Amino acid sequence: MPSKKSKKSTPSKSVAKLNKVNPSGKREESFFELVYEVARQIPFGRVTSYGAIAACLGTKLSARMVGWAMNGADKINPTVPAHRVVNRVGLLSGKHHFNPPGKMEKLLKKEGILVKDDVIVNFKEKFWDPTKEVM
DNA sequence: ACCATGACTAGAA
DNA sequence: CTTCTAGCCATGG
Fold this sequence. Notes:
Blueprint: H1 31-41, E1 48-49, H2 50-57, H3 63-70, E2 85-86, H4 103-110, E3 115-116, E4 119-120, H5 123-126, H6 130-133
Parallel strand pairs: 1-2
Antiparallel strand pairs: 3-4
The protein binds a DNA duplex through residues 10-12, 14-15, 31-32, 49-51, 54, 59-71, 82, 85-88, 92-97.
């Protein structure tokens, strides 16, 4: 049978579509869902970087996709703690994507994470490496 | 199908 | 320290 399905396997037709996964309980293993899954594993009061998540998925060079996936995190259930995901220097690179902007910083402070000038203070201490914690 | 953009990262100058 | 370059790959026009 002629299978026209490409090996590329579109991880997600669209971000909005990710909101509604297969109702049969058969969730598609898309890059995005993996990102959300790892993001949910981030413990309270901890943060991680896009690259760390990407590395955990085996594609550390695709950190951009992690960030892009977070773009739809707000529409995903259960809620994805996207506010715990920042760039490699602890900069709240995605704070402008929150609604309202500044909520990200507020949430972090709520978890005991100090934010100064859009940068996480003591980022190294709060950093949580999924590749080490997740087995 | 091509081109431009993007919540990134690592390395080089 | 800053600035630039290249790689990554999905999304949208």
